[in-house]
Amino acid sequence: MPPTQPWSPSPEAASWDYSGSGSGALEEELELCAPWELPYARVFVPTLYLAAFAVGLLGNGLVLRLLARRRGPRRLADTFVLHLAAADLGLVLTLPLWATAAAWGDRWPFGLALCKLSGFALTASRCAGALLLAGLAADRYLAVARPPGARPLRSPRCARTLCRGAWAAALPVGLHALVSRDLQPRPEGPGSLCGERPSDSLQALGLLLLLLTCALPLGATFFCYCRLARRLRGPRRLGRAPAAPLRIVCAVEGAFVGSWLPFSTLSVIRHLAHLGAVPLTCRLLWALRWGLTIATCLAFGHSCANPLIYLLLDRSFRVRAWRLVHRRSLASSSSGDPAGSWGRAHTESPAAAGPA
User: Fold this and answer.
1) What is the pLDDT of residues 309-333, one digit of tens each?
2) Region annotation Disordered: residue ranges (predicted)?
3) In this predicted structure, which of 116-120, 200-204, 262-266, 342-346 has the lowest mean pLDDT?
4) Rounded to the nearest 5°, which phi and psi values hold at 17?
5) Bridge partners, residue 181, by sequence
6) CA dist 87 to 249, 281, 327, Å?
7) What is the DSSP string of 215-234?
8) Which of 195, 295, 301, 314 could make an S-S bridge to 23, C-beta 3.0–4.6 Å?
9) From its phi and psi, is residue 203 left (phi > 0), alpha (psi between -120 and 50) or beta?
């Protein structure tokens, strides 16, 4: 197929999986277009996945430990943060599988069950994260704007109900991955690929779910922050606003949008191309594949972003993390260690334990 000839997928063509790799007859189409491969993809993609796994496992585990065992009343935002860490951890646990498949040229050696479960965990985690961030944005707007009747909505019970609702909506979305995921033969050699079945109905359903679970929560988040920006317009309102929590929430929201929006946009184009709605030239087809590979690395890297944001911007989180690390170091060191005595005095000082 010449590089300038428009391409539209055949009914047998399979779609890319969420790791950004090609699969099935679509790979054969790509081989006919051009022999290009993303340079060093088998090296940098697994490396990025494993780095995100290491940082995300430690960081999200730390967030869960600190917030789940926190004494006293918990801030409403902490409820959303706790569930966000759980969603990110669900994605993090699948990264070694995707890293192995990427290092082996997209060959999936883990069987059908893990193929389906990995797709389920990835889809459900992404959906839950988007819905939880929308709830967090709404909570910040209500906290600053304080419209009439907002007090009952900002209760711990309401926050827990919203988080449970986000998971309840994410689980059925993840079931689509359980149905659509399958092992398919690799066109260029032995082994199998973990990808979606080449079905127009599944492609259309996947496109609909992607729009519902990405576009709608992001639209609600954008609406809340537009209203919040209007409320904060003016020096008096800005002076009363909790600047530090808003800065943290904006950073978390921005990291999610910057990480997942490129992947979601390219995934919409991929679904439309497989449905024949968007004909692609061979050059555009390869650009789409390269873009999905890079966008998937960015999306997977988001699983370790939130704990880093908390460490950088949330002073109270840094203090609690330091206390936890210091207690563990004291348990393995002698009680007469001068460094341990200094650390204990530092962490117990009122200035170090002030609110963010």
Assistant:
1) 999 988 888 888 888 877 777 766 6
2) 1-20, 331-356
3) 342-346
4) -85, 180
5) 196
6) 17, 37, 27
7) IHHHHHHHHHHHHHHHHT-S
8) 195
9) alpha
Taking residue 130's Cβ as centre, other Cβ atoms within 10 Å add up to: 25
CA-wise closest residue to 120 among 90, 153, 151, 154 = 90
Q: Which residues are registered as beta bridge partners of 184?
A: 193
Query: Closest by alpha carbon to 63, among 297, 248, 332, 257?
Result: 248
Say if CB 130 and CB 214 are below 8 A apart: yes
pLDDT of residue 3: 37
Which residue is associated with the tokens 């081989």? 31
- Rounded to 5°, angle at Cα 44 from 25 and 85: 95
- Please tell me the distance from the alpha carbon of residue 197 to that of residue 211, in angstroms, as a whole number: 19
Q: Give the pLDDT mean for 285-291.
A: 87
- Cα separation, 356 vs 331, in Å, equals 28
Tokens 């334990």, residue located: 353
The token pair that represents 131 in the structure block: 């819905």
- pLDDT digits 0-9 by tens, 57-100: 999 999 999 888 776 667 788 899 999 999 999 999 999 999 99
Cβ atoms of 24 and 193 within 8 Å: the answer is yes
Q: Kindly state the tokens that stand for 27.
A: 């790979």
pTM of the entire predicted model: 0.79
CA distance 186 to 356: 52
The C-alpha atoms of residue 320 and residue 327 are separated, in whole angstroms, by 11
CA angle 332, 338, 340 (to 5 degrees): 40
Cβ partners under 8 Å of residue 207, min gap 6: 268, 271, 272, 275
d(CA 67, CA 62): 9
Structure-block tokens of residue 146: 């304080």
